[in-house]
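user: can you give me the structure for this one chain? tokens are fine.
assistant: on it. calling the predictor now.
[tool input]
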Amino acid sequence: MDILFKKNICEVSTRHRTDDSRIFIKISRSLRKICDNVSFIGTGEESLVKDGINLIGVPHCKKSISLCQIKRVLIAYRRAIKENADLYHLHTPELIPLGLYLKLKHKKVLYDQHEFVNVTVRGWPLLRALRFFLKHFFWWLEGLAYRCFDLIVCNTEGIYEVARGNKCVVANFVDVDLIEKIDYKKNKTFSIVYAGGLSLDRSIYDLVESIGKLNKEGVKVHLDLMGRWEEGLEEKCKELEGWKYTKYHGLLDPIEVYTIMKSCHVGVSVLKPFENYMEGWAVKIFEYMACGLPVIGSNFPKWKSFYKDSILYCEPTMEGIRDSIKKLHTDKGLREELIKKGKDFVKTKCNWESQERILFEKIFELYEDKV
């Protein structure tokens, strides 16, 4: 697109720049195509310029609820206001008060609703006793956002249905062209890969345990893990037999993640049956497909309707994961069939380019001086 959008745009998130929700950086990179000045404020070790985007770092805190966390959010607020951008794109619920302040300053504000509120609250163990209050508090905040913000950007059709106000769907689909350009070398050992949040509700403990069971049965498999650990889970996984066959790569940039994915043989995204997972799309599945991997996914009804026969479904249990990996390990024909169907699926239905166009059009509609 050769139109230059003469506005300063600032993306703001309180999550880490290399988290599994990489739509933050994906949107920033897309906006750089039409705009000279794009900033991204998010948790990161340092501030730097990358791909023409001003990455502004915010300190990281390990604990979800702490004085450090409150300080981190306040720093994000201060740095966002200092940017004095024309348009702000907010990505997390705790930024809604910032958005309301920015509206008072006559700024354009977009708000991304990535997930259902009750799931956000569920992940905070220290606040479970206040779950009812917090859930309704965030509903109230999002109600303000719906009425006051210029555009609500929804991650899935399910979220779009419950959102109000001026809204659109911009799904976190995969940048196929970017992935196809990455060079890689296939692992010699049959490798399973998982990238994303490393938590119990994403079946990581079951996955590591299944790797140990398979190797004990004589099925030689290796596991590559990337992402951020749920507190205390890494120590529990290290006690399992499967940890001997597991390599943890840490938090990586998207290019590094895709390189490791392409070097493996099977991608896994087996999530437990929670509302946000059952009603949404697993972004990692799109990425696995684009990397040329057969995919094992949870047997959710909505997933079966959406992905159809392009992935292998299994029960979200250790036994289900083990049996599915074993099936793909022994059936080369099935692997090749799923690889072909997966590549066709992302290229025709789930390419980021289509979502990029939707976002551009919606942003242009907010202004009269589009050029």
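assistant: here you go. The chain has 16 helices and 14 strands. The first strand starts at residue 5 and ends at 16.
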